[in-house]
Amino acid sequence: MLEVISPELARRIVARDEQPGDDWHPDYPFADELDPLRSLAAASGTEPVFTMYLIRRQSDNLAVGGIGFFGPPDGTGTVEFGYGLVPSARGAGLATEAVELALRHAADNGARAAVADTAIANLASRRVLEKNGFVEVERRAALVYYRRDLV
Q1: Most exposed among 35, 85, 112, 132, judged by the fewest C-beta atoms under 10 Å?
Q2: What average pLDDT does range 69-78 have in this prediction?
Q3: pLDDT-above-90 percentage for the chain
Q4: Is the separation of the CB atoms in 126 and 144 below 8 Å?
């Protein structure tokens, strides 16, 4: 399940100001997510669709990761995104499901294609993208770049 992260929620996540109902995993947020969360926290408003989302595990409603867009689609309709889960939540299909939901949401809101990159050595992330129909389009240094048409 995906939940929009507002600037106010981003500020609380960065400050670890957990309130009743937030239900964040003790390892959330992870280091890679702090900079995007700080940027969102500093924003006065947000892009209502192409923003950051919490990934909640349905079995216990715990926030175990995040997925976010790097802004709205560009002039060609392409949107870029990234995602991550706390280590203990990995391997259960949550990332695959979150990517699927986010891509459906992006397509429903005008995105025509999506791109993402991951470390060549990150086989789990590469599998998540490939399960969601992404194809490798390039390799540079230690990164693999993926693309998928949404329409």
Answers
A1: 35
A2: 96
A3: 91
A4: yes
Residue of 54, 117, 116, 110 whose CA lies nearest to 85:
54
Task: Write the burial class of residue 139 (CB in 10 Å: 0-12 exposed, 13-18 middle, 19+ buried).
Answer: exposed
Nearest Cα neighbor of 96 from 116, 112, 79 is: 116
Distance (Å, whole) CA 5 – CA 112:
23
pTM of the model: 0.93
Q: What is the mean pLDDT of residues 124-144?
A: 97
* Residues 28-46 pLDDT 10s: 998 889 999 999 999 887 7
CA pair distance 146, 25, nearest whole angstrom: 29
- Give the whole-angstrom CA distance, residue 78 versus residue 150: 9
Going by C-alpha positions, the residue among 39, 38, 105 that lies closest to residue 72 is 105
